[in-house]
């Protein structure tokens, strides 16, 4: 997989509207321990700006769109999310920045661990240093 990949979630199409669902250890490769979402993000603002030591995560644009900038110290990629049935599965040790939120965008995050501040790298230089130390 590398450190991240795009995943497609199930869709049930209906004339009354579509439905997508997510099951832990089926559609995502972990037990979902935490769910949170970002919304009402002001124009020009960016979110995230961190990496996780152990946590895995799926990020989905539930409404609107935004850009997800990813960096594992070797590879960098920007993915625009705009469909509620498409997510990005992130492994640990991936620096992420989320920006370019459209009006009304909602970013849903499914996490493999409860919140734990000690799991975060909040400084890119600390993150990058620890990548080198793992080799």
TrEMBL record:
**Coiled coil start-end:** none
- This one is known as WxcM-like domain-containing protein
Tell me where on the tree of life, at the top rank, the source sits.
Answer: Bacteria
- Residue stretches making up the Sugar 3,4-ketoisomerase QdtA cupin domain: 5-129
Pfam families in the cross-refs: FdtA (PF05523)
Show the InterPro entries listed in the entry. Answer: QdtA_cupin_dom, RmlC-like_jellyroll, RmlC_Cupin_sf
